[in-house]
Specification:
494 residues; 3 domains; 6 strands; globular
Length: 494
């Protein structure tokens, strides 16, 4: 059944390979500098490597938007996104798989009554504008530098041609790695919380987390999509929008690769924070948008005379339509699965403001007389609780979200067996000791488990939120998410 439900994610990976992944070599193939077979092999290999080694950052941001918690629900969200992308691909348009999966998740949130994290949504949607603009700026600057270097170069044309081909392949490999690291969240992100999987150890020392196992499968699906169905979109990007030369093709690929890397690299984020610089959000962005932005950036530098404005409008229209189509397909598809096939598309989660929950809200400075009327009441969805908060209290949107999160009831069971499934290399000795002290305990709220661990050991306590402590707190939040996924259970006999 797990493989059956994963099939839609693999289909989405194939669609991404056929559409978005083609962009890393589209201009190189369209200008005949790199053969399609060479491009497909190189990009397929490096997509898998990037997905497995660096796919976690963007996936966590996607999970905050909406935590799809049932296999059938994850299946339909991924299927809706894949169908939207396939439809656009058949039209020869480079669309955004990122936008498709966001639309699918919002469709799931609407159907199940789950709250949509507004901060995460704003962060992701803002990149739909920032991504092509940033890529266009990179491309314009790199093109000016490359043109100046070419004018000064005395290299023979044959030598220059050979060098350009080699650099195109190297930059394409970097782009494929960045694409796998960034966009694997779109392919397998919705399955991270829904698919029960355990970490495994290979060769006695190599730890492969459950997320990395999913990312490897998704990476393989992307590679298959590149081999089987990407050539048409490559030609649209490489020739249809603006006539590219080998040099401009190289600039486009490098600009796109840099943008994807910026939005996927946890190491870069850590370096920026440690030097007091503003960090870049780790979110899945569209390689198609990055390529289009880069091509337009170069075209504007060259005067924009040969820019196909009609095709740009068609592509922009596809970007708007994709999330809407995916959301509608997901909503009605979930209704069909639940009512025709009687499949659980979400794991029921109730919301209750308990006495300890009210105390926690007081500690966080959330006060309102109307909260007392809601204490002890049980709500079937976060949307119902949010509506009651609007009616009974004068709390703002941010405080209402804090209340909803505090009231979310789930069952967490700490056992030695589940502790051993964790990647213990990420934990300190003190953290592991505190976990083992809690073996056999149950908790009804995620924050209850977190606060108990913090009381058990300072190793689990958040540090004051300063620039120097930012990285340590981020690592701690990553470890806490690992615990919640491992200890969460719906089995009353566990």
């Amino acid at each position: 059944m797990i493989l059956l439900f994963l099939s839609s994610g693999l289909f989405l990976g194939w669609s991404l390979g056929a559409n978005d992944a083609a962009n890393v070599f589209g201009t190189a193939v369209a200008t005949r500098m790199v053969r399609f077979r060479t491009a497909a092999i190189t990009s397929g290999l490096f997509v898998i490597v990037g997905a497995v080694l660096a796919g976690g950052g963007a996936t966590r941001t996607l999970g905050q938007l909406g935590s799809v918690n049932a296999m059938a629900g994850a299946f339909m969200v991924a299927l809706a996104a894949a169908l939207a992308v396939l439809w656009m691909t058949r039209a020869g348009l480079p669309v955004s798989v990122s936008q498709a999966i966001i639309g699918g998740i919002i469709g799931w949130n609407l159907f199940t009554g789950s709250p949509t994290d507004i901060d995460s949504l704003v962060k992701i949607v803002s990149t739909w504008v920032i991504c092509p603009l940033l890529s266009g700026v990179f491309a314009a600057g790199l093109y000016v530098l490359a043109r100046a270097a070419t004018v000064r170069s005395r290299m023979h044309l044959l030598a220059e041609d050979a060098l350009t081909r080699a650099v195109l392949i190297a930059v394409g490999a970097f782009g494929a790695f960045s694409l796998g690291a960034n966009n694997i969240a779109n392919v397998m992100g919705v399955f991270v919380s829904a698919i029960p999987a355990s970490s495994v150890h290979l060769l006695g020392f190599l730890h492969v987390s459950s997320d990395q196992q999913l990312f490897a499968l998704g990476g393989i699906a992307i590679a298959v999509g590149i081999f089987t169905y990407s050539h048409r979109v490559m030609m649209t990007v490489g020739k249809g929008l603006f006539r590219l030369t080998p040099m401009t093709g190289l600039v486009v690929i490098l600009s796109e690769s840099l943008v994807l890397f910026l939005f996927a690299s946890e190491l870069l984020e850590s370096w920026l924070i440690s030097h007091g610089l503003p960090s870049i959000p780790l979110v899945p962005v569209s390689s198609s948008q990055a390529v289009i932005g880069a091509v337009i950036g170069i075209a504007l530098v060259k005067g924009g005379r040969n820019l196909d404005l009609r095709l740009i409008r068609r592509i922009a229209g596809g970007w708007v339509a994709t999330p809407v189509i995916a959301a509608l397909v997901a909503f009605f598809g979930l209704f069909f699965l639940q009512n025709v096939f009687d499949l659980p598309v979400h794991r029921p989660v109730s919301y209750e403001l308990s006495e300890v929950g009210m105390e926690r809200l007081q500690e966080h400075g959330v006060h309102d007389e109307g909260l007392a009327e809601l204490e002890g009441a049980v709500f079937e969805t976060g949307r119902e609780l949010s509506s009651a908060l609007k009616e009974k209290t004068s709390l703002g949107m941010i405080d209402r979200e804090v209340v909803v999160e505090c009231a979310r009831k789930e069952r967490f069971v700490v056992t030695l067996k589940r502790i051993e499934t964790l990647d213990l290399t990420l934990l300190t000795v003190g953290q592991i000791r505190a976990l083992r002290e809690l073996s056999g305990r149950e908790f009804g709220y995620s924050w209850e488990l977190e606060s108990t661990l913090a009381a058990e050991s300072d190793h689990w306590a958040m540090l004051p939120d300063t620039r120097d402590n930012h990285l340590a707190n981020k690592r701690l939040r990553t470890n806490l998410r690992q615990l919640l996924d491992a200890f969460r259970t719906a089995d009353t006999n566990d």
